What does this fold into?
Amino acid sequence: MSLRSRCQITLAVMCAFLGATISGCWRTNTTVPLVDANVLEIKGEIPIKIWRVVGPFDTSGSTGKPRNSATVSGQNGRNSDFMLQFGLPESVMDSRALERIHFIQGMDKRFANHDISANGTSNILTLGSAKNTMLNTSHYIASEIESNTEKDIVLAVGVTGSIQMWLNHDLLIEDSVATRRHVDKFQHIVGAHLRKGRNFLFAKLSYMDDWNRVEIMASLFSRLEAKKLVNANGNNPVLLGSIVSAKDKLNVRTDLFSRGTMAKLSLLDSDGKVVRELSAGVGSRVTQIALEGLDENRLYHCVVSDGHDELDSQFYYGDVAKGFGEVLQEVSHIAENRKRDKLLAQVERLTSLMPPQVRAMERWDEMFVASLSELKQNIRDLRKGEEAFDSATGTHLRSYVSSVDDQRQYYWMHVPPSRTNTKGAIPLVLILPFDVSNNTQFPRSYFVNAANYQERYSAMADKYQYIISEIWGRGNGHAGTAIEAADVFDVIRAISAFYPIDQSRIYLMGYCEGGLRALLLAEHYPNVFAAVAVDHPITNPAFAEAVRERLLSPLSGISKLRGTSILISHDIDEPAPRFSNSVDFLNTAQDNHISIVLSKKQGGGGIHGFSQDPAKDIDSFFSFFQGKSLRGSRLSADLSERNGRVPDGRMMPLEVVFGQPILLVRGTGGSASSLKTESYLEQWFENSWMRTYFVNAPRKNDVDVTESDIRGKNLILVGEIANTSILKGIAAGLPLRSMNMAIEIDGKRILGNKLSYIYSVKNPVVTTRSIVVIGSNAELSQPFRTDFVPSRDGFYQYYVFDCRHDSAVPFEFGYLRRVSAKARSSAGPRAY
It folds into this structure.
């Protein structure tokens, strides 16, 4: 055997022994990978494609405390200096010292010091996998950047864990957030200075979650791109922190300006009055400003200018709790209830930001300042008059009264500031959200509180001069339902009441489930939306029930999209939903002569194809909308119309009833035991409504129902038919009979002594309205419980539940042969 062969075998054995199983291609060279920054001005962006990776270092203590390391004071290892055991603190580590780091007894057996390539398409470096988890570990990564001259650059970095990053021993980034689910390429945008020659870029990554891996990506940009990048991605370009406690100093960033110049720093109060000015050298990371003498518990602006560029950020100075209390007092001093109601959305959002556990969220300080600032501005507008509030420009959280349940729901919107000087109708873009893990009220949701989220959309609205709005409404799992459609049209009407919306240029956008929502809404209500742009849409959803799959698959109703322009953007490597699904949708759409474009992209990274450059994607959608309009629109369309989406074209699924105004009606007759059963069923419906929508369902006793209720609302009737006085006139015509050991519905007998049911029929005296009946064939001894939500899950017309279990599951369901109940008398509706 040759010496070369023996060396190769020895090397392989050593790698196996050390457990160097981190995924990626690695090399055994002894130098840290080199990035050439000399072509930066030509290329515009230079991604870092290869990193020297050292680790993993265990942060859980399971393999023993690292020798001579700093005390572990943070759960994710961010405060542990693992380099000390090799004789040099991490903050002064250099490439030569890093190359000499080696395995020491007691360390993680997977430890290695080698180069790993990032993904060739996405430029994302991935450390770990499901089989090789990096939970509770830290890694060090490094690269050298070579420059023939001194120059200022911008570094964009995204990471799924916590990070500390140094360039030539200067700390550039320090972020302790330990858990993120995808890499945001522009999560951190920082200015940096390259000296002539080689520059050592060094970072520590720590991760503590059940996602098994840590991911990072980094790119170099020209300093000329700084302002464009921060504005497009909603980053704070001026301040390291947006909340400054009394007697603390304000930390102002000047790193995004070129070195060697002087910057003018101005502090302004909320009225725009300059309260302090000073000059500072720029290019360094932080300039500290003392705030003594300023009024506490107030909002201020910090404006930084170098004569060419100007950057502005808002901050709060003082005690957060006091500021919160003071603004609530201001709201309470508004005399008219109608005006106070207009502030409910912002009060709810600000209140949701106050609990201690919420304050640990990423960029919480910016969220608090933005929310407090908006609420204070809203109060000032209302003092001028309601018109000033209703027609305000900028980004706002608003509420509307739902046409379904008369309860307040929420949306956010952005109106370009320049629209105050523009006459004529304005296009409207509606963003439909994807499902999130935590279904909650809109003011508390990801879509209001996520860093960068609203800012990116608002920037595009300003660029293209569109009004935009996002509607969360009823939360997860409501794609294609009537109640979600009602929310959308409620919001369109609410915005149109105060802004001149061009009804022929209303557009839909959505990502993933939001894409499904957008496509279904455009199919169910054709000739309302001029164009639809969706990213990674679910176009062929799979459900257990075949009927639900038919009703909620955009492929089933694709012919309804004729006349609507469609753009689909999809990463070809996305595993779920697959790119092939969008290709199938494209082919089917073209077969139906639908105007559609499929935009292929690659390199989103993560398991859900989140874009590396979301601002660029949003820009492409707005660009697609340009020039697209309808010849006529049907915004006033009856929400019960479904354009043939129901199997036989006549019978409505139960959920369709909840696209119109509803009223829960409880019968007041009958025995105490039967009333107890009715109470359990009523409580189930009310609790289900509150749990799903965070509001109360409107209700009345049967004796209080008016003729206006009968004509204007879909009645949800609870209890035995004989005990519900409002049903006495039509009882004989209902399709269900309840017996002790069975129920009979539409001629079909279902056996069981503890059965509950829900079904819908047309109201026989007001054919534009419906009746929903909820009942049981036995007296219930305990509250009725089921995860079934009629307005969300009711894709059949009737459901029968077996109540012998703690959680009832519908085991019989279907459609009725007869749509309407038969009235016993033709005397017309009667109030009781």
Q: What stands out?
A: The mean pLDDT is 82. DSSP finds 19 helices and 37 strands in the chain. The longest helix spans residues 672-693.
